[in-house]
Amino acid sequence: MNILIVDDFEQDRKMLRRTIHKKHPEYKISEVSNLSYMYAELTKPCELLFLDISLNGNNKPDNEGLNAICAIIDGYPGLPICLITGYFKEKVYRVLGDFMSESGPIVNCLDKGKYKSEDLLKVYSKAEKYRLEFEEKVKDKPAVEDLILEAIDAEKDRLEKQYLNNAQKQESRNNLLELMETAYNGRNWVSRIEAENNITGGTCQGNSFHLCVKIDKLSKFPCGNENQECTFRQRQECPFLQGQKCNFRLRTKKLSERYCLSDTTKKMLNDSWDIRNLIIHGSKIASCQDALSLLNVVELLQHLKQKQ
Fold it and tell me: What's the pTM value of the predicted model, to 2 decimals?
């Protein structure tokens, strides 16, 4: 197991290293004294992180170590964390208790100078369990884009069965074939949307799925200090921001600050993300207007990306 110890007191680092090696001399242990060195070490393989939550020696819980936990959970998913403290264990449990459950990334919180080899054995076991469970979740979870592409194929098949197969005359079938070709392979988005709308008589699900994929990709281009964007702590402190919506809304704010977007444009971006979520999660059948709204956002994001 590759282990990293982060503690600003050398004596405490050495003691933890000796305690670990007493039972597991085969474990590879690295140790650093601050967060800058920690992030450098985390570019290497690491299966368990021991983190002191008071890294500047003033014995306060709300300093570097405690604040870094949120960024680590965000930036290194799947990495088990064991906290180390000598002063405020109760506060740690109160603030981070939800993330110290059986399935959480924080596998334990040890008291400096009081832990024993037996306590570390529990840490290793829980860390291994967490990493394996995380790997299974990642392996079994299909990418959003893959799900959307499957939905596009399913929508195309549905249109063929519902409309093409019901066409009575050969001329009608030929017209529908032309519309289908334009709807899914047209030279521009407006003609594709119009063609699909003509086929269905009012819905535009297939091209809306395509545009959702484009928005997902375009919304990831850099727009400021990405390391500070939508952190674990921000999600914790802002209940209305959830999941991907949190990322997009925060990105909208950053885009607005960087490019001086108008309130109307900001509203268009956020409204489009609401439409995107409803379509992707099956809560809405996209209309022609929905598709055109998504297209407006794609064109805006493409324009902003070119200005990078």
Answer: 0.49
